[in-house]
Amino acid sequence: MSPLVLQADEIFLRPARFRDRAKWNEVRAENKEWLTPWEATLPRVPAGSPASEFVSKRPSFFEMVHALNREARAGRSYSFLIWKGENLIGQITLGGVIYGALRAGHIGYWIDRNFANRGYTTQAVLRLSSYGFSELGLHRIEINVRPENAASCKVAEKAGFTFEGHRKAFLHIDGAWRDHVSFVKYNELIQ
Questions:
Q1: CA distances from 38 to 3, 31, 62 (A)
Q2: E strands within the chain?
Q3: Domain-by-domain residue ranges, the chain?
Q4: What is the pTM of this model?
Q5: What's the CATH fold of domain 6-138?
Q6: Predicted local distance difference test score (pLDDT) of residue 47
Q7: For residues 149 and 169, what is the distance between their CA atoms, to the nearest angstrom?
C-alpha cells in the first residue's frame, strides 16, 4: 500500500520513510537553535516509576518512524513531513485523535527557518485540518502554542483557528513546564 500523500497549494505532506533519515537529520541539525525554544522535552520522572520506561530518551529516527507508523495504523496520530518540491521543510502531526462523544485531535508542527514566513506552515495546517474533518470525521481540532511564539499564533489564526484560552504549565517545552494558548477550529459539516 502506498503512503497517504496530502497535496496543498505549494507543498505536499507525506509520512516519513526510512530513506528520509539523512534529509531529516540535516534539516533538524541546521535548525537546532531555531527550534529549541519551542521543542517538547522529556520531564524527569523517578527511576523505577511506571512512566520511566516511556520517557527515558528520545527515539532514533528509525524508532520514530516505526512509532509514527504504528500510531497511524491505530488511528491515534497522523504525522507527515512537509515537502516543497525536493526540499524537506518541516513536519506536522495531527495527534491525540479521539473517537466517540469527543471526536478531536491536536496539531503540532515545526518548520525550517529557511522556509518560515512564506505561508507553507499555514498551508500544511489547512490541509491536515481538512483531512481530519473530511476523512476522519473529527469535530474539533486544537493548536496549542507558547504565547511567546507569535509566528505560530499567527499560523493558527490564518488557518481559521480561534483563540479559546490559556493553559497553565501545559506542556514540557525547552526543559520546563510552559504555559500555552489554545486555538480551536470546529468541523462545520458535523452538528
A1: 29, 12, 23
A2: 6-7, 12-14, 78-84, 87-98, 104-111, 140-145, 162-173, 176-186
A3: 6-138
A4: 0.92
A5: Aminopeptidase (3.40.630)
A6: 72
A7: 15
